[in-house]
Amino acid sequence: MVTDTLIYGRGGDANALDPIHTDIGESVKVIVNIFEPLVAYDDETLDLVPGLAESWETSDDGLEWTFKLRPDVKFHDGTHLDAEAVVFTFQRILDPDHPHVHSNIIPYYSSYSQIENIEAVDDLTVKFTLKQPQATFLANIAMFPSGIVSPTAVKKYGADFTRHPVGTGPFQFVHWKPKQEIVLSRFDDYWGEPVGIERVVFLPSEESSIRVTQLKRGEIHIADNLPPSEVDGLEKTPGVVVQSTPGINIGYLTMQTQKPPLDKPEVRQAVGYAIDRDRLIEVAYAGHAQKAKSMVPPTLWGHSDDVPEKEFDPEKAKQLLQEASQKYGFELPLKLELFVMDQPRPYMQQPRQTAIFIKDALEKVGFQIEIITNDIGQHFQRMTRGEHQLGLSGWSADIADPHNFLHTLLHSENINEIGGNNLSQYKNEEVDKLLDAAQFELDQEKRTQLYKQAQQLISEDAPVLPLVHVPVRIAQRDFVEGYKLHPSSQVRLKSARIAEQ
Amino acid sequence: MLIQRLAQAVVTMLIAVLAIFVAVRVLPANPVIAQFGQHAVPEKIEKEMEERGWNKPLWQQAITFVGQMAQGNLGESFARPGEKISSRLGQAVPATLELTFAAMLIAIPVGVFVGTIAALWRNAWPDWISMAIALLGVSIPVFFLAICLIVAFPLMPTGYRLPPGTQHQLHTEFYFFEALLTGQFQLAAVSARHLVLPAIALSTIPLAVVSRVTRNSMLEVLDADYLRTARAKGASLLRMIVRHAFPNASLSVLNIVGFQLGMLLSGAILTETVFNWPGLGRYVVDAIRDYDYAVVQACALVLAGLFVTLNLTLDVLFLVFDPRLREGNRS
Q: pLDDT digits over B244-293, tens only?
């Protein structure tokens, strides 16, 4: 079978294809093939490399960033990329009353709120002015929401642009039948390396067991987001190969630090010693996960290896809990509620099994655990309101920067009832100061030191128990060549090819 | 009579509209906050709440809602920015109808056949076998059956309405019917191939019910005095079944088919999920999962509307087919 169409099977459909209006992974998979930002990730690493911008420079105070655009880049509608298009793209994110924005849902709005002004210096030069220096600025610019859109197309389609996306990427949009398929075709005027496949079809298929069957039959060529045991099975299937890359994510157990009894550090420490995470990885991840030491994954710079490893030590847990019960006067077994979501996440592939494992482990050292299962939306909403005591949670990186883990998940600024991601409601002024300093520091060496200090303090306070970092694994037919999983989890299909058989 | 039924239908719809409105409002999650997810910005949420009218008193919202529904304005999706619900329904409803129709096309003839055989050989082995099949049909979970079918027929497509990336010249979402009617026979065949497995999966429950009902009403008719008379006069068995038993049994079957159609429309959810069939069932399940309340409301209304229309149609059909009802009306 020789075919020039690649069929990509995944668990769900996109919700929007306008880069600014979504944070759904299934949308992002499509968007990154249609749109390109000024700055891109290297093909194999998380290093930032030129994208639509050939080069850039920063003023000494870190407030002005000037980007030189690549000449002769065309949008899919035939218009040319120029500085005005870049200005237009960012104004759509920043200006709440922009005439060409038709929805209030701009998930990454706050990632760009440090931008004071953006102007076109000449046809191919753009200057950003920031309110204050921001270490993550360049990484934010490399995120998918800042993919450059064609102003002509945005104006032409209006509210429908999200269903008729036009960018400069290697693939152009053909059609989208919701819940059926999204079809892209090769963009022949692409400025970069020629693209190897004629067409891409993104197929949603919710049932992972069906995706496995489809892959085995060759109905789809790539299947992502499969349970670990299914991937293990596919690894042995002739004609199918499995790819794996470390993910930038963390699965963790959050502990509500503002509510007794978890406001006592001893109790939180006891939880940490009671759980055998090596065994958990066997039970709930079929062995395919890495034990987490800190909230920052080891694949990311800024990860601290000096944080003391919390070894599995049930005797120590018992002892800590005994002492705490005498000191603070509470009875054993200590009753706690454990919140768990009803659906898997990349970092929490089998939430129910994980919860049962943790319940079992904790009950052996003197806790009594009640598991509370909520559907995924309710689960996170109830935890942002702080209703839990213990809760399963996790995070996949938006940008490859420790700020995205430590600040987002543990800075006191991020405690609020709507979307506050500091689920432990952890407040430590010293940690806050370190994280703030790291955010405005531009020297990466110094930032690394600041983040390492913060990780040390966080480990001592134990508002969270880091559980695992989970690799990204996909299964594909062996005739799909050149497609490499990217550590950012971005699905970049431009280098994929279908071999003749 | 007909006018009375119509009035009843309108009242039923109005009650349904209000019930759906209240049901959605008492659910615990705030749909607006849910849409913003992990990257919420309070000011943006407030703006959205205001634009959507979600911060107004409930009675004001109810009036606006009923007004919009009355104009046929189903609104926009929350989870898919800018998507008109009516346009998605325009795709989902035909997909479900086509699947439901295909399922009934299997269920009714096969069910009637099995039921008739069972009635004719009452309490003998054909009866036992067919009733065992019927029992299996109602008790086997659709979901499980669907996966079994996929495994059992490795050469049949596992789902979707057409092969991925198919380019076609169809203007409606009734793929099979339109392809057939416009003479695109190859496309019709492909689309039919994709219909087969989901239709079989969906047909088992109505097939079982239809066969049981056929068997019972056949037995009743076969025992009736007039048939014994006909038999005594020397009428052949075939003639008796076709001329006398069928028309009488068909009323109960019609009744149950109507009821099952309603069940099918809502029951297609599981089948649609396994076979990736982009119909109403999946649309509403996804909407519930995404807290897309505007869509849940609209789908619930469409389902209610379909039920009401279906019942109305059945009532009319009964009036046409059953002379007793008309006589009763005249007296």
A: 777 777 777 777 777 777 677 666 778 898 898 999 888 888 888 888 88
Question: For the segment A236-270, what is each residue's pLDDT rounded down to a tens digit?
Answer: 999 999 999 998 999 999 999 999 899 999 999 99
Three-class secondary structure of residue A10 per DSSP? strand
- In angstroms, how far apart are the furthest CA atoms of chain B? 86
CB contact A330 to B (< 8 Å): no
Question: Beta A334-341 vs A390-396: how paired, if at all?
Answer: parallel
3-state secondary structure (DSSP) of residue A345: strand
Q: Specify the 3-state DSSP secondary structure of B287.
A: helix
Q: Which positions in chain B touch A162 (Cβ < 8 Å)?
A: 81-82
pLDDT, tens digit (0-9, with 9 covering 90-100), for B45-85: 888 888 888 888 888 888 888 888 888 888 888 888 778 89
- How much is the ipTM here? 0.85
A445: domain CATH number? 3.10.105.10
Asked if B80 and A15 come within 8 Å (Cβ–Cβ), the reply is yes
Q: Is residue A164 part of a domain?
A: no
At residue B327, the pLDDT reads 57
Same domain? A271 vs A380: yes
Range of A76's domain?
36-155
What are the backbone dihedrals phi and psi of residue A422, each rounded to the nearest 5 degrees, phi first? -85, 80
User: How far apart (Å, rounded) are the C-alpha atoms in residues A312 and A357?
Assistant: 14
Q: What is the pLDDT of residue A202?
A: 97
CATH code of A123's domain: 3.90.76.10
* Interface contact B38-A421, CB threshold 8 A: yes
So what's the pLDDT on residue A199? 95
**A491: in domain:** yes
Give yes or no: residues A408 and A433 share one domain.
Answer: yes
Task: Give which of B30, B39, B295 to mutate to test A binding, by max A Cβ within 10 Å.
Answer: B39
| Counts for chain A of helices (H) and strands (E), in that order | 14, 21
Q: How far is Cα A208 from Cα B166, in angstroms, rounded to an integer?
A: 23
Alpha-carbon gap, residue A51 to A251, rounded angstroms? 31
Interface contact B29, partner A, CB < 8 A:
yes
- What stretches of A42-194 adopt beta strand conformation (E)? 48-50, 53-58, 64-69, 115-122, 125-130, 171-177, 181-186
A162 in any annotated domain: no
Q: What is the pTM of this model?
A: 0.89
3-state secondary structure of A129: strand
Which residues fall within 8 angstroms of residue A238, CB to CB, at 6 or more apart? none
d(CA B303, CA B306): 5
Average pLDDT over residues A31-41: 96
- One domain, residues A144 and A256: no
B72 close contact with A: CB closer than 8 A: no
Q: Is some CB atom of chain B closer than 8 A to the CB atom of A204?
A: yes
- Mean residue pLDDT across chain A: 93
pLDDT in tens, A385-413: 899 999 999 999 988 899 999 999 999 99
- On whether both A446 and A479 belong to a single domain, the answer is no
Burial B121-146 (b: 16+ CB within 10 A, else e): eeeeeebeebbebbeebeeeebeebb
CATH code for the domain in which residue A492 is found: 3.40.190.10
